[in-house]
Each structure stands twice: as structure tokens, then as C-alpha cells.
Amino acid sequence: MRTVTNGKHDYDSRALDSQAILLLAVQALLGTANALSGTFLPVYLWKASQSFSLIGWFNFTQFLVSGLTFWLAGKWVKEHNKMNSLRLGVALSGVFYFVVLMLGKSAITYVVPLGMLLGIGNGCFWLAFNVVYFEITEPGNRDRFNGWAGLLGSGAGIIAPWISGWLITSNKGERGYSIIFTISSVIFAVAVVLSFWLKKRETSGTYEWFQGFRVLRERGNPWRHAVPAIISQGIREGVFMFLIGLLVYIATKNEGKLGNFSLVTSLVALGSFWLVGRILKPKRRRAAMLIGAAAITAIIAVLFMPLSYKTLLIFGLGTALFMPLYIIPMTSTVFDLIGADENSARQREEYVILREAGLTVGRVIGVTSYLLILPYIDRSPYIVPSLMLLVGAFPLVSWWLMRGLLGRGSGVQERAS
């Protein structure tokens, strides 16, 4: 927030302005719609196909196309209208659930094109979102914004999946899924309308298609540490984003239990994101991220116990409690790196795309490892937990690579909002 004192501009480094709050509202609607239907989408595909491989290929396609969309849409976002990219992304996400609704169980025949559709939607939205997020926040309030984003996401995860689980179990056959897919499509439409109150952002400069490659070739460039750390973050996400919910359903055979799982874990995550977002300062990021990375890795050990709702709930609660300590410093530090100097800030679109390229590479590696172990999944009950421990330990690699960059945000010159 900008204030004027003795003719000079001062800045409240912690406050969020109206545009930041509106952006959070759009993200919250997106999160709510995804929590309603996205939580149960792997279950829906599993019930229709009984195929772990099909779900893996759906996510593989989604992640790969999303990353490619980031790169291709970069020129549009940098040189033309980033807000239209954001709106298109939200709209396509709504179209995705509408198409799934229309296809019904035959959706399993079209998992690759459906993955492409969702990937394009996610790519358009998150590219524009991340650029706008960078533009309307500063090093002093970036942790607060990420704290609020996590809090709102957790809030959506508290009630939305529980409602979905109740609707699915209360309605026989496909009716429950039809209801939640319809509600999600409507919420996406509301988010598109709300986004028109976000101000059109100025554009400047020419899009550099291969800026990321040039950056990674420069000796001593901090992105040479940051990008492998981001890849490590993506490796974990590529598996955990869809597999945990699916395991909860397989262990319980009950969508209502999955809704309860999401409710309880999201409630814990909400409190944790709120607390970490309020107390975390740039100088504390290094210690916070190490604690978070170590804790979310250690809690995977419970998955080596017999698969049950209880063991999965212990895992979910531990992850929800400590994830903010890992993800907030990671995200804030990378975006502080984008704004480290005027030249970096001018090329923010290219750096946002470089970040997403790292996440895409990591997620594809994660899903590929999942697909590779599928032929052996019936040989031992420890195959899946071993995979999850392997990919789930990569946050520690992220911390190791980022440790020299964590805390730099406090020294970055703050930009006018």
C-alpha cells in the first residue's frame, strides 16, 4: 500500500492492496471449483477404468501440455493482454469439467485430449496469475500473500470436498458426480466474471523465447541453483497431487471418507498457513524451509504401515501441518529472485516461464517414475510407499540447492505498487 510522508513515498511492506485481494478472490474461486471436482476426478476415472496407468497418463499429458502452454503463451502475456490469458485459463477449466460431465464414463476413452484441455487451461491461468502476482506484491508482503493464498486454498479444501463426498454418497450412480461437475463449471464462470474487475496490466518489452536457456548457461547465475530446486519440488508434486486422494478411496471405497480426509487435513493446513504467513520473515526462510522439508519427508514413513484410512490420515495431517514451512519460503524466494534487479523484473514473464518449466520437468519425472513402477505394483505392498518416499524426499534436495538464496528477499529493493 502506498502512503505519502513529507513529500516522499513510503510503503507498508506487509499490507496487500485491493488488486492483490481481488486476485486472491479469483484464486480462491478457482481453488474451490477444483476442490469440489478435482479431488474426486482421479476416483471417477479409477471407478470407470480400474486402471492406475490411465490416471498416470492423464496427469502426464496435463503436466506436459501445461508447461508447453506456459512457453507458447508467454508472448501473448508479455506483449499483449495477460488478463485475457487469465480469463481464458479459468474458462477452459470450466469447459473441461463440462466436457467430462457430458462424456460421463466414456471420458476414460479421451483421457489424453482431456488432459490436453485441462493443461492448456492451467497453463493460461497460472502464467498470467504468477506474472500479476509478481507485479502487485513486494518482498515485504510476498510471504503474507502466499500465506493468504494457502489459507484460502485450505479453506476451500475444508468444505468443498466434504460437500462433494456427501453429494456423491447421497446420490446413486453418476448423479452425484454430475452435480459436482456442474457446480464447478458454474464457479469457474463466476471467477471469469470477477476477473474483469482486475485492472488491465501494462505491457512492455519483447518476449525472449529462449531467455531461460541463456540464463542457465551463465556461470554464477543464481537460477542455476533455483531451477534444479524447482524441478525437485515438481518431482514430489507430480505424484502426490493425484495419488494420495486415490489411495484414500482405495483404502475406504467411500467418497465420503475422502471428503472427510480433505476436510480434516485442510483445516490443519489452514491454521498452519495462517500462522506461517503471519510470522515468517525473509531472514527466517532458511530454517523454516529446512524444518518443513524434513518433516514432510519424515511423515512418509507411516505409509509403510498397512494401508488404511488411519495411516493415510496421519500422513495427511503431518503434511498439512508442515507443508507451509516448506512451500512459502520456496515460492517467495523464487519470486524475489525474479525481482532482484530492474533487468530481471523487466523479464518477469520469461522468468515465470522458467520457473514453470522447472515444475513441468519435475512433475513429468515424478509421473514417469510412477508409470515405470506400475508393472511391479502387485509384487510387494512396499512398492508404492517406496516410490512415495523416493519422490517425497526431493524437498530436501530443494532446500539444499536453495539454501544460499533463502533470505535474500529482505535485501531486494522494494518496488512501487
TrEMBL record:
Q: What is its main location?
A: membrane
Compartment annotation: Cell membrane
Under what name is this protein listed? MFS transporter
Q: Which PANTHER family match?
A: INTEGRAL MEMBRANE TRANSPORT PROTEIN-RELATED (PTHR23526), MAJOR FACILITATOR SUPERFAMILY (MFS) PROFILE DOMAIN-CONTAINING PROTEIN (PTHR23526:SF2)
Q: In the UniProt record, does the keyword Transmembrane occur?
A: yes
Any single Pfam family the record assigns to this protein = MFS_1
Q: Does the keyword Transmembrane helix apply?
A: yes
Instruction: Name one molecular function that GO assigns to this entry.
Output: transmembrane transporter activity
Instruction: Kindly give the SUPFAM superfamilies that the UniProt entry links to this protein.
Output: MFS general substrate transporter
Which keywords annotate this record? Membrane, Transmembrane, Transmembrane helix
What are its GO cellular component terms? plasma membrane
Annotated TM spans: 21-46, 52-73, 85-104, 110-133, 145-164, 176-198, 234-252, 258-276, 288-307, 313-338, 359-377, 383-402
State the membrane topology: Multi-pass membrane protein
* Lineage, opening ranks: Bacteria, Bacillati, Bacillota, Bacilli, Bacillales
